[in-house]
Amino acid sequence: MAAGEISTPQDYIGHHLSNLQLDLRTFELVNPHDAPATFWVLNIDSMFFSVVLGLIFLVLFRKVANSATSGVPGKLQAAIEMVVGFVDGNVRDMYHGKSKLIAPLALTIFVWVFLMNFMDLLPIDFLPYIGEHVFGLPALRVVPSADVNVTLSMALGVFILILFYSIKMKGVGGFAKELTLQPFNHPLFIPINLILEGVSLLAKPVSLGLRLFGNMYAGELIFILIAGLLPWWSQWVLSVPWAIFHILIISLQAFIFMVLTIVYLSMASEEH
């Protein structure tokens, strides 16, 4: 659906909630408005912006690390040092084991998720307009964290680390006992314990991914509703206050994702 074909607020909202998709069977771009939903597609706009923002994070932090001085730091170095110190303090407070992975992982999660969330503060039609009129793309969503595939993929990565640290610290037998002998330490309750602990274990990545997705999807939808239902000259009355408030939301969601990751891995690393 091209911008010129958008005639109603419903079309406008649907257009902005559609991902740019690649059909894996034909390796062709799919117009989400014309093609039926299918499993064999990739939301390549979410993947593209996720990778680009990740590269920005790596290049920026590496550049500052290589040019860091021991004297009075510049503004960029000071800002990054504050972020690193903030994350390091949270890791020291919440993770009680010893691991060289947890602090870099927490820093990566916090900054990467924040950058993905920050894309929601760009004008809603800016990048989609460029994508359509310059590159001929039928659709474009620029907030990766508003795509449930991205958030659940990140949560799945955390879940794999939970399993890894649980087995590493407790052993296969200890991890199996944790799943089968808690909370009722009796062989007769093994099936019940397995169900309770299995649900609790699987709920961690699901809640982690869906919490981020739900908040960012709702924030994106509010910006779309403001742009689709109000005249252009009056949109700032609602969009500016919501954008200011949304700065708190995107920061808080990045912080929550980081904190829960640290807490889950700390629980997995406990030997008892």
UniProtKB/TrEMBL annotation:
GO biological process, one term: proton motive force-driven plasma membrane ATP synthesis
Xref: InterPro entries: ATP_syn_F0_a_bact/chloroplast, ATP_synth_F0_asu, ATP_synth_F0_asu_AS, F0_ATP_A_sf
Subcellular location(s) of the protein: Cell membrane; Membrane
Transmembrane segments: 37-61, 101-119, 148-167, 212-234, 240-265
Superkingdom per UniProt: Bacteria
Recorded family membership: Belongs to the ATPase A chain family.
Protein name: ATP synthase subunit a
Protein's gene: atpB
